[in-house]
Specification:
The complex is a heterodimer of chains A (about 180) and B (about 220).
Chain A: H1 3-29, H2 36-44, H3 48-69, H4 76-98, H5 103-126, E1 135-136, H6 154-176, H7 178-182
Chain B: H1 3-11, H2 19-39, E1 56-58, E2 81-85, E3 91-94, E4 100-106, H3 111-126, E5 133-139, H4 151-157, E6 164-166, H5 172-176, E7 181-182, E8 184-188, E9 194-199, H6 204-212
Parallel strand pairs in B: 4-5, 5-6
Antiparallel strand pairs in B: 1-2, 2-3, 4-8, 8-9
Classes of the chains: A mainly alpha (about 180), B alpha/beta (about 220).
Chain lengths: ~180, ~220
């Protein structure tokens, strides 16, 4: 399988993450009029910790594939996102095994930091002049190594992962609070 | 199916989703789609044209460009001579030869080069350089893994109008001219000394004004 197929695979997973997040946002926004949010909390909340861990582990494996197999060297912004995603994979997995819902808060904070870096990295790709008018010799952050379906670049995929992790942890935390589903 | 069973089914609360099954389904569907979507677009054929070529440098290298250095220590120094080839294998020589010149270093993967080159190319085609001034591009920092490869196809698609020197794998030409970032411009007086250097995207007006400032 070539790197194009593998990155397309990750783009499709990111697309799934985005669909999941949009569905959750819609459910949350219509919470007073529909039972969608309660249904989501009931259906996914109990598995929220595991889902977040799976997303983080998948994103971590994807980033390692890109740098170690496809040989796309990680730039400065990539490393910032890695510093958020890798602990989420490790500690999130431990939290999922121990069913420690308390980690949902810390996980959301870490994922929010990562998502902020992803957003800035996407902006750098879109507007290369945001930081500087020139490319550094050694791997500037503005290089677009991969782009699928028009928008799915590497930081966009990472950002999709981060917001999906935030959503999964939000559902896990909501499932842990009975009043969330009974409201 | 009896009525009681139907009623019970209709009012049943949503069940917890079997996470493993859902994830497995998503992975399988994404994997199959990825293979199908990329099957016809399998790796593009490698370029027949050599994208790196030997370069001979003679003379003293220019100091590395530092945008904050004022004055630029390279100004007034003679440029080193670069001897190499273009993408077709035709010899290209950039040397002090009594003509003023501008040497433009570009990297195919650099987004700033990808923005600057399509702006400069039509300008160079439509408005000839002043008499006694020549222009060269140097394709350097080639990376087959990086986007917009190969540079020969990129520059051809833009119809780049000046001779192109193809740098070697070590970037000998770029190093000799003190390149520190892309795109990189070295403006050279007719006596072969550096008039000015600049890095990054520059407007056409600045490009033209630096050429106008050359001693011809």
């Amino acid at each position: 399988m070539n790197s194009d197929a593998v990155t397309t695979f990750f783009a499709l997973l990111a697309l799934t993450c985005d669909a999941f997040v949009l569905a959750a946002l819609l459910a949350r926004a219509t919470r007073r009029r529909t039972a969608w949010w309660d249904s989501l909390v009931t259906m996914i909340g109990p598995s929220g910790l595991a889902l977040a861990a799976v997303i983080a582990v998948t994103a971590t494996l994807g980033s390692l594939y890109l740098s170690e197999v496809a040989h796309f060297p990680p730039c400065r912004m990539c490393w910032y996102q890695r510093t958020a995603m890798y602990p989420l994979a490790l500690l999130g997995s431990v939290a999922a095994v121990r069913r420690d819902v308390g980690f949902a808060l810390y996980g959301r904070v870490l994922a929010a930091v990562g998502a902020a870096f992803s957003l800035y990295h996407v902006l750098l790709e879109r507007f290369p002049g945001l930081e500087t008018g020139a490319c550094e010799v050694d791997n500037p952050c503005s290089i677009v190594w991969v782009r699928h379906f028009g928008v799915f670049t590497i930081p966009f995929m990472a950002g999709s992962g981060f917001v999906a992790i935030i959503t999964a942890y939000a559902l896990a935390a909501a499932a842990d609070r009975p009043e969330e589903t009974s409201a | 199916m009896n009525e009681n069973a139907e009623t019970a089914k209709g009012t049943s609360a949503p069940r917890r989703i079997p996470l493993v099954a859902v994830i497995a389904a998503v992975v399988v569907i994404a994997g199959v789609l990825a293979v199908v979507l990329t099957r016809s677009g399998d790796e593009s054929a490698p370029a027949d044209v050599a994208q790196i070529r030997p370069v001979t440098v003679s003379g003293t290298p220019l100091p590395e460009y530092d945008a904050t250095a004022d004055p630029d220590p390279a100004v007034g120094r003679e440029i080193p001579t670069l001897s190499g080839e273009n993408f077709s294998g035709t010899p290209v020589r950039i040397a002090p030869n009594g003509k003023a010149k501008v040497v433009i270093f570009v990297a195919h993967w650099c987004p700033h080069c990808q923005r600057e080159v399509p702006i400069l190319a039509p300008d160079l085609r439509e408005e000839p350089l002043p008499t006694g001034v020549e222009a060269f591009a140097v394709s350097t920092a080639v990376n087959p893994q990086a986007p917009n490869f190969p540079p020969s196809a990129w520059l051809e698609s833009i119809d780049w109008p000046t001779p192109i020197l193809v740098d070697d794998a070590e970037g000998a030409a770029a190093g000799a001219y003190g390149l520190s970032s892309f795109p990189y411009f070295v403006f050279v007086n007719a006596d072969g000394t550096v008039s000015s250097r600049v890095s990054g995207e520059i407007p056409v007006t600045e490009f033209r004004s630096r050429i106008a400032a050359l001693e011809k």
